[in-house]
Predict the structure.
Amino acid sequence: SSGTTALHLQQDSAGRGIFIDQNGNANAIRIDCEAGGDDAIRVFSKYGLRVDQDIAGGYAGFFTRDISEAGSSPLVEIKDDNVNNTQPALKIRQDGAGTGLLLDQNGNSYGIFIDTEATTINALQVEADVLTTGGAALFYSNSSSTSTRSLVAINNDHSSSSGTTALHVKQDSS
């Protein structure tokens, strides 16, 4: 019947609730959920989900969608909704020589779009404090198109913002 729980486990001691040691080459857990209005998995806890990749050549997370999605839901959404929170909603730390964040935008839309309601803080800030021969930013195009375009555009669009400097360059070195 509706609203009943088919399997309920309650672990009140400090041990694991469920332990699966899957050594064969197949899924340890597979869920096929056809629910149209609820989550396949929902976790309530202090530390929600942790995945440690301990075998080379794999990945810690993979999200894919191959449907014509015309709805209003992105493939992955991170929502940090408390106005008093001072911590980042997403933090990426890359200690190796690989790229920290790689976006491969193949559709005809923005690769990065930032919509900020900040009033006294920069919408985008890059701090490159230990550069030697690298740069803080590079805007590069290798397009063979002969169409008229701007590689970089700065647009201060509101007529009342007369105190705005569209581009400020400060060189403290001699």
Notes: The chain has a mean pLDDT of 93. The two ends are 78 Å apart (CA to CA).
